[in-house]
Amino acid sequence: MREADNDEKNKKIAAATLLLQQQIILAQFISRTEPQQRLEIVERQNFHNFLSSVNIIVENRATEVRSFA
């Protein structure tokens, strides 16, 4: 049991580390680009985040509608 807990902790740490590494790489990439390119990258990220939020809202509404049916 303890070994499974340690394995789970190690997986979470590895996932968090990978996410941080990706964020660092993205930040380094953005810092090396021209201002206009940086703006375009940020705009694309914002648009992607917006679409993800819309998808979550639509999925939640669909779940609510199904629960009333």
Fill in the keyword field for this structure.
single chain; 69 residues; mainly alpha; 2 domains; 2 helices; 94% helix
User: What proportion of the residues is helical, as a percent range?
Assistant: over 70%
Shape: flat
- Uncertain runs are none
> Could you give the count of β-strands?
0
Total helices: the number is 2
Strand residue content? under 5%
The N- to C-terminal Cα distance equals: 43 Å
Number of domains: 2
Mean of pLDDT:
84
The value of Rg in angstroms is: 19 Å
The helix-strand sequence is HH
Overall structural class, as computed from helix and strand content, comes to mainly alpha
Structure, briefly:
This protein is mainly alpha-helical. The protein has helices spanning 2-32, 35-68.
